């Protein structure tokens, strides 16, 4: 797993936690600005799981990169999809709020992706890249697969990935 962190102190906290979890050898922490590091990371892809959880203003750019570097059947996830409720406040036109709206809309409208926002906490955007161009004749209703916890998300995503 490769993870990017701008703040060296945060990177150190993450490194300590990975070490305590016995995962240090499986994690490659790169310190720097993701906007600068991601282009060169493309040479190491495509990736099967991409999790986006940095500054919200950057979400649209991070998502475009993710969609270009995600393999078929891969998953892209984003934290804070609800922006703490700000995305439904029509008077909120801050860049970070607009960025989350763009992020959510982009995932929802991309025909290559099967997407949802799981309404737990501040909202988790989850999307699977289809393995094939066309939907099957009886499209899967993703809402039928979602229950109430993360274990069920995992089950739902596994089902969607098998189907698409
Ligand atoms: C909400 S925290 C991430 C928490 C992490 N996902 C976790 O679960 O522990 C957001 C992190 O993004 C980092 N960040 C902000 N802008 C960044 C950028 N341009 N490139 C890389 N990391 C960035 C911040 O330093 C902060 O540590």
The CATH superfamily appears as Vaccinia Virus protein VP39
The helix-strand sequence is: EHEHEHEHEEH
What is the helix fraction of residues, given as a range? 25-40%
Q: Helical stretch count?
A: 5
Ligands and ions found: S-adenosylmethionine
Question: What order do the strands of the largest sheet run in, or round the barrel if closed?
Answer: 3-4-6-5
Categorize the overall geometry.
globular
Decide which structural class fits the backbone: alpha/beta
Major beta sheet, specifics? 4 strands, mixed
Rounded to an integer in angstroms, the radius of gyration calculated over CA atoms is: 17 Å
Count of discrete structural domains: 1
The end-to-end span amounts to 24 Å
Mean pLDDT: 88
Percentage of residues in DSSP E strands: 15-25%
Contiguous runs where pLDDT drops below 50 for at least 5 residues: 137-141, 144-149
CATH class: Alpha Beta
At the third CATH level, what is the topology name?
Rossmann fold
């Amino acid at each position: 797993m490769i993870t990017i962190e701008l703040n060296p102190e945060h990177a150190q906290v993450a490194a300590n936690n990975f070490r305590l979890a016995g995962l240090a050898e499986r994690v490659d922490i790169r310190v720097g600005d993701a906007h600068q590091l991601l282009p060169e990371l493309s040479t190491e892809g495509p990736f099967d799981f991409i999790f986006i959880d940095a500054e919200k203003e950057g979400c649209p750019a991070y998502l475009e990169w993710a969609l270009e570097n995600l393999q078929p059947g891969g998953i892209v996830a984003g934290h804070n999809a609800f922006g703490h409720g700000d995305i439904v406040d029509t008077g909120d036109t801050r860049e970070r709020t607009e960025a989350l709206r763009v992020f959510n809309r982009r995932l929802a409208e991309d025909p290559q992706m099967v997407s949802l926002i799981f309404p737990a906490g501040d909202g988790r955007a989850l999307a699977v890249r289809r393995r094939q161009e066309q939907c099957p004749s009886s499209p899967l209703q993703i809402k039928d697969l979602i229950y109430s916890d993360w274990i069920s998300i995992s089950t739902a995503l596994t089902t969607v990935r098998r189907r698409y």
